[in-house]
């Protein structure tokens, strides 16, 4: 059986919001498997599905860029070792240049992107420029991911927390004006805050629904051991619908007016501008999501530097 460390318990607590002893028990029951421990806690009703996002730990920033005509945009995440470097003006300028490179790029994956000629110095590749920046800034850095959207509609971007979260939102719009762009910016802020996984329900796979249904069924049985399966099945229909509303952008309550869903808000905007506005896609990057941060003892670090 795998040894359960305090670090593992702490990590599971951060991922789920469950209590320390519950996390310790979940890890013991699942032989230290983090994903299975999350599911164990959910089945016991001790963890929310939305907490399964992963470990938000590494430093760096997310940057976005939109073309002048609003028809294309790019989003990038570049990581650094420390928050100090992430706030450095030279690092931020470099990340903005990486975003501009991504906007002009035709590359489909990171390997091809790193092999491209660096637009601001054609004697270097993107990867060589990254190495050069590492040498100048004096800290390890990584271009972790990028995504580009090209559309015949409109793209709007939003950056939250100085680059901690970035969002691109693509919409089809019969009318494109400041009212439409402001509405899409509002929805991009909602995406940053509430982390939907899909635009609408028809994007959700049956496999995902079956998996969530099974977890909710076990959870309901644990809470109501005396109720028959027929009642349990009816209970989980409501719970599943509630969960899917949180996962789907257009079904979420609109944060600026809780009486509206995002879908109803879009209907209002469409009526106001005299043409249909419809969200087609969004991309949300959060700095460091899923990465594990190296934790050093500050006193030991200072002692090492003095030696």
TrEMBL record:
Which PANTHER family does this UniProt record tie to the protein?
A: ELONGATION FACTOR TS, ELONGATION FACTOR TS, MITOCHONDRIAL
Give the taxonomic lineage as stored in the record.
Bacteria, Bacillati, Bacillota, Clostridia, Lachnospirales
Cellular localisation: Cytoplasm
In which broad location class does this protein mainly occur, judging by the first location in its UniProt entry? cytoplasm
Q: Which N-terminal residues, if any, form the signal peptide?
A: none
Alphabetized UniProt keyword annotations? Cytoplasm, Elongation factor, Protein biosynthesis
Please list where the region (Involved in Mg(2+) ion dislocation from EF-Tu) is annotated.
82-85
Q: Which InterPro entries match?
A: EF-Ts_dimer_sf, Transl_elong_EFTs/EF1B, Transl_elong_EFTs/EF1B_dimer, Transl_elong_Ts_CS, UBA-like_sf
Kindly provide the name given to this protein in its UniProt entry. Elongation factor Ts
GO function terms (MF aspect): translation elongation factor activity
Q: Organism's domain of life?
A: Bacteria
The record's section on SUPFAM superfamilies has: Elongation factor Ts (EF-Ts), dimerisation domain, UBA-like
Q: What does this protein do?
A: Associates with the EF-Tu.GDP complex and induces the exchange of GDP to GTP. It remains bound to the aminoacyl-tRNA.EF-Tu.GTP complex up to the GTP hydrolysis stage on the ribosome.
Q: Where is the Translation elongation factor EFTs/EF1B dimerisation domain?
A: 73-289
**Membership in a protein family:** Belongs to the EF-Ts family.
Q: Which NCBIfam families match?
A: tsf (TIGR00116)
Where does this protein come from, organism-wise? Answer: Lacrimispora xylanolytica
